[in-house]
Amino acid sequence: MTVSHDHPQAELRTGWVERTCELLCEVALVVMIVLISAEVIGRTFFGVSFEMSDEIGAYLLVAITFLSLSVCVVKNAFHYVEFVQGRLSPAARVISLVFFDVLALGCSLIILWQLVRLEWISWNSGDVSASWLMTPLWLPRLSMPIGMLAMVITLTKATIVGVRRISVGRGHTS
User: Fold this and answer.
1) Closest Cα to residue 152, out of 144, 140, 141?
2) Residue 136 φ then ψ, to 5°
3) Tens-of-pLDDT digits for all 174 residues of the chain?
4) How far apart are CA 119 and CA 139, in angstroms?
5) What pTM did the predictor assign?
6) How many CB atoms lie within 10 A of CB 33?
7) Do the Cβ atoms of 128 and 71 come closer than 8 Å?
8) How is 118-150 classified by DSSP, letter by letter?
C-alpha cells in the first residue's frame, strides 16, 4: 500500500530562512570540495599537507548537518513510517503528521536551548581547538544553534499549515 505524499509540508513555501540555509550548505560543500582537493593534490604531487583540511572539513560537515535541517523539512525530505500512515484515514493521517511536527518542534526547542547554552559557555570560556589553527570553538559551534533555530522556525510554519489544514477540513489526500 502506498501513501500519497500530500503531506502538510507540501503546502509549505520555501522562505528566506530555508533559502539562506540551503545557500550556506552549498557554499560549505564547495569549500569542503576545494579544501579536500587541494589537500589531495598537495599530498600526491608535492608531499605537502595543509594540516587543516580535517579540522575545517569537520566544522563544515557539522554546519551542513545543522543548516540542512530546515531545508529537509520544507522539501519533505525526511523519512516517514508509511505503513502506519497508510492505515489511517486521510484526516487521521494529517492529525498524526501535525502531532509529529509538534513533538519535533518541542524536541527542537529543547535542543536549541542546550545548543545556545553550549555556545554561551564556549564564548565565555575562551576554549580553542587543540590544533595549530587554535580556532575559537564558539565559531564553528555557532552553526549548530543557527541551524536548529532555522529548524524551529520551519517546524513552526509546518505546524501552522497543518493546523489550518485540519481546521478547514482539508485532511483528505488527493
Assistant:
1) 144
2) -60, 125
3) 333 445 555 668 889 999 999 999 999 999 999 999 999 999 999 988 888 888 999 999 999 999 999 999 999 888 776 788 888 888 888 898 899 999 999 999 999 999 999 999 999 999 998 888 899 999 999 999 999 999 999 999 999 998 998 888 754 544
4) 9
5) 0.84
6) 11
7) no
8) HHHHHHHHT-B-SSTT--BTHHHHTHHHHHHHH
Calpha distance 68→64 (Å, rounded): 6
Cα–Cα dist 168/164, whole Å: 6
User: What nine digits make up the cell of 155?
Assistant: 517546524
Domain boundaries, the chain: 8-167
- AA letter at 17: V
**What is the rounded distance in angstroms from the CA atom of residue 172 to the CA atom of residue 138?**
46
Residues 60, 33 contacting (CB under 8 angstroms): no
Q: Helix, strand or coil for residue 172?
A: coil
C-alpha cell at 20: 539562506
Residues found in the chain:
174
